[in-house]
Amino acid sequence: MKTSPFDLSGRTALITGSIRGIGFAFAQGLAEAGARVILNGRNEESLAAAVTRLTDLGHAAEGSLFDVVDEAAVAAAFSALDERGIAVDILINNAGIQFRKPMVDLALADWQRVIDTNLTGAFIVAREAARRMIARGTGGKIINIGSLTSEAARATVAPYTAAKGGIKMLTRAMAAEWARFDIQANAIGPGYIATDMNAALIQDAAFDAWVKNSNPAQRWGQPEELTGTAVYLASSASNYVNGQIIYVDGGWLAVL
Ligand code: GCO
């Protein structure tokens, strides 16, 4: 029986920022498709709890504690996996933060924190993963997480917008350098997804109405509505797809 091109059995996936929200949904989706998953976060307890949620469902899951902005900690995390003979075949660069303030009032430290986590962190983790994929000669998958703000801006979220715009082009730079090693680098652009990060926006009646009136699906998306695209980009079904960003946004960017 021919195995499905979407089958991830025998693959190992690392998902950064996967304790909750869309990161956790990505991890659960890839685990359901057969992958062993490595969750990541910065808080030991909540990371362990997230791992237990998946192992309780019978999935092969474990945790790797590091902050994506900490270059030494990221390198140490990968070395620890090397020592245990664990090869990361699939990387989802999902770790991200949001900070909302008009630019004229924005402190450089807040700007830097968002850029470091949402853009530089993706570079730091992908570099470690790609070095090993190239050395093993086994290829691999890198999936970055963009946003509607990879294409269009909204007031008060300038560092996030700059970082997500950067993620789109960083993904293409990865394709330019790593596709020849059979590494496919692509991105997913979530629309407005009902997560903790957007809780304040959901509770804001005017903002909630704006989201519902601005996308043809007329609703917020759910985290699990992103996982199918992640499984596709993590699987051999996308072996000739490179440097793309797939928007999962209810049609927001497609319709005036
Ligand atoms: C915001 C939101 C957005 C969404 C998403 C949209 O403040 O506008 O947090 O950034 O999370 O990225 O694509």
Automatic annotation (TrEMBL):
A GO molecular function held by the record: oxidoreductase activity, acting on the CH-OH group of donors, NAD or NADP as acceptor
InterPro entries: NAD(P)-bd_dom_sf, Sc_DH/Rdtase_CS, SDR_fam
One Pfam family this sequence matches: adh_short_C2
Source organism, top-level taxon: Bacteria
Signal peptide: none
Gene3D superfamilies: NAD(P)-binding Rossmann-like Domain
Family, as annotated: Belongs to the short-chain dehydrogenases/reductases (SDR) family.
Alphabetical list of PANTHER family matching this protein: SHORT-CHAIN DEHYDROGENASES/REDUCTASES FAMILY MEMBER
Protein name stated in the entry: Gluconate 5-dehydrogenase
Species name: Azospirillum oryzae
